[in-house]
Predict the structure.
Amino acid sequence: MAPVFSLLFLISTASVFSAVTARDYGFTVELIHRDSPKSPMYNSSETHFDRIVNALRRSSHRNTVVLESDTAEAPIFNNGGEYLVEISVGTPPFSIVAVADTGSDVIWTQCKPCSNCYQQNAPMFDPSKSTTYKNVACSSPVCSYSGDGSSCSDDSECLYSIAYGDDSHSQGNLAVDTVTMQSTSGRPVAFPRTVIGCGHDNAGTFNANVSGIVGLGRGPASLVTQLGPATGGKFSYCLIPIGTGSTNDSTKLNFGSNANVSGSGTVSTPIYSSAQYKTFYSLKLEAVSVGDTKFNFPEGASKLGGESNIIIDSGTTLTYLPSALLNSFGSAISQSMSLPHAQDPSEFLDYCFATTTDDYEMPPVTMHFEGADVPLQRENLFVRLSDDTICLAFGSFPDDNIFIYGNIAQSNFLVGYDIKNLAVSFQPAHCGAV
Ligand SMILES: *[C@@H]1O[C@H](CO)[C@@H](O)[C@H](O)[C@H]1NC(C)=O
Ligand SMILES: *[C@@H]1O[C@H](CO)[C@@H](O)[C@H](O)[C@H]1NC(C)=O
Ligand SMILES: *[C@@H]1O[C@H](CO)[C@@H](O)[C@H](O)[C@H]1NC(C)=O
Ligand SMILES: *[C@@H]1O[C@H](CO)[C@@H](O)[C@H](O)[C@H]1NC(C)=O
């Protein structure tokens, strides 16, 4: 596979565009699915169905992690996100491939010298080689960006510490440095003085082929929040359906004016703030309908608090609903499909049907978010688990109190986040073709 880290070394900093000086500025970077041939995590020995089953397994694990971290003040998903992004840190720009995660807040990468790092196959960032790198002092207001885990070193430098729900962790210096991204227009965009975690102690379930995490959550240290002054707090993505396998079409992550979602079919729903789950984008799903039958989201089922009841997350594959709602919804789907019932060969999913064609009939299905009716297509509802089996890509989980709108349901929609006006927009699209 092509070396993903070479490109930016070749670009002199003089040609880098500094976006903080621009207003209404927009740019687009590539979002790499972890199973795409462009991903450093790509495993060519896996079959298409292996990849789908592995994605289902990660999805259910991610939810377990959320639940287990119940008692923590700021529960955070582990690093099992589904998408990667390439960013560069420092001057000259040093490229890393990291997990892009709407369920995380901080941008961190493994840093030399490493007292305790997981194995990383790509070269590691060395802050002493960057002329723009600076540790944040304990006295700086920015030190609070590291959330509850900040502390002081002996020489008064600000230290961050992130504990993930699966016992993984990252600890090190909170620092500022230039973050550069390779825009798909060909021109790199640089964001000086971006707060990053320079991780000297990172361990747990991290993959040897990724160098850290780029948080796209709502916290002050996330990439999205930090780019806010230049991008107006807007980003969007258009996820290619999981079933389209080894396509080389790339998913785009748009910022600023490139992330405008408007025009035909666009609907918007409010983002709520959850006191306990500050990282997440919390929405209100009022009901789900199959044909003319509407099933309400049960009152009080979610513990997000306030009005919201479901998290929208690009790093979770399935959509998780309260079990009572899932059962009504699944039964209604089963009754209106003219296909024979089948068993899920992977045993993850409950509502499966036998068909060898992808051109089957299905009832109209709509997700009724507050103020936004989102009509789902086949690729949002079903995932093919074998040559003759499709399954409803919706689940529930044992404790039945955190619900997630996952990435299969979001595919072939342009999904826009506006963290200034607190809204998520959906517009039907053909992702990959746009
Ligand atoms: C990491 O990438 C190498 C090739 O650079 C590959 O051989 C290996 O299987 C990958 N490992 C994982 C865990 O994806
Ligand atoms: C790649 O996939 C094969 C087949 O599923 C599996 O046996 C192997 O362990 C995988 N390699 C890595 C590095 O994950
Ligand atoms: C994807 O790209 C790789 C390398 O650029 C190429 O070898 C492969 O044939 C492409 N696959 C498809 C389905 O276009
Ligand atoms: C996006 O919206 C902003 C504000 O409404 C506007 O200034 C900008 O021109 C729009 N950009 C595009 C590409 O439509």
About this structure: The pocket of 2-acetamido-2-deoxy-beta-D-glucopyranose (ligand 3) is lined by residues 37, 246-248 (CB under 6 Å).
